[in-house]
């Protein structure tokens, strides 16, 4: 539990640095609200982690793997990636070239997601039942939420009193906290090399991997930005209709493929494929019920994600300083978040999943409505603390419940890949819509935006009676 708390801490720190904190940094550097909204699409990368998750199930990182094992080797590499990307963001904190800012933000998102994939797979393998998952998931989320608070408050206080460069460098150093613990743990059974030799070889291999990842990301990014510019997507473009069409495409594609998947036998190439087999198996087991499951998970965290990227710019626009936001995101947010996570983790061990999911959705909605309430209050830190506490408590509770629910849907033979697919797909639609959040706010204002985001959280509740009827098909021996 202590180790997974630390891993959650290491993953939670960078997430705020390429989402909420980055939004405030861009705002301070004079970037328009619409373009800040576009930066929310950096958060789309974790939704596509199923693309490379099977690789983490099948391969080890050279140097690290033979000594520290498959899961630890990927976690160690990901930590080095997080540190290097965040250091680069620190050295380009003026945001004079937004393409460069986007490059390092994407790399930070990629390595953060890789860390989560490896850690989630390890967690599910170690704790395959709800009773075991509840405490372990809570420990992981305590670390994650604590890190988000530390990044949100610490980075803003440092930025307000020093510089954005200092803020990013400090968080980069803190994100390496589990690194010495992981490399000092005893080597895997049967390791043919010592800890020091494995560490030296792994660091050399990691330097090459990190450089290759940066080069590929830069190339793909250049192509995508050129295509967006040619299509006329800029700060004045209304991208919402295009985003809604993209949201519908995954469901249309899955519906067309399902009849073929349901007929697949155990030796079918689709089910035996290393690349798509884990995902085909999920649809084979749940059939058309998989579409209902995916629709539900797409909506459950919708309100949280929509609020994440623009809540701090709204608070800043109300007249609160970076230091005031940082203080609200420190002890107040930490206590509220940990209480929400703890209560959510406890409820899944004592109650049926349906009622627990409904309770989590209600409190997540209350957290979003708190921003509407805050906008109607005069500027005072006490009101800010109250709204922050409601938001963090609701997000923490809903997050803990959701993690356990997704963990129970996976097949242990494909733990890493299937959990990556489910947790990634859960945020695909919300993050697509979040990218057009700046456009929406420009049309309806912050008040109505957060009112809609709260209602979106409640929209998951009507799915629960239908989900209770979904039963997976038995897997052949």
Short summary:
This protein is mostly helical and 477 residues long. It is built from 23 helices and no strands. α16 (302-318) crosses α22 (437-458).
Number of helices: 23
**Mean of residue pLDDT?**
84
Number of domains: 1
CATH topology (level 3) name: Growth Hormone, Chain: A
Gap between N and C termini: 33 Å
- Give the helix level as a range of percent: over 70%
> What top-tier CATH class fits best?
Mainly Alpha
Largest sheet: none
Structural class computed from helices and strand pairing: mainly alpha
CA radius of gyration is: 21 Å
- CATH homology-level superfamily: MFS general substrate transporter like domains
How many distinct beta strands?
Answer: 0
The global form is: globular
Which CATH-level-2 architecture?
A: Up-down Bundle
User: Which parts are unreliable, with pLDDT below 50 for 5 consecutive residues or more?
Assistant: none
Strand percentage lies at: under 5%
What is the string of SSEs from the N terminus onward?
A: HHHHHHHHHHHHHHHHHHHHHHH
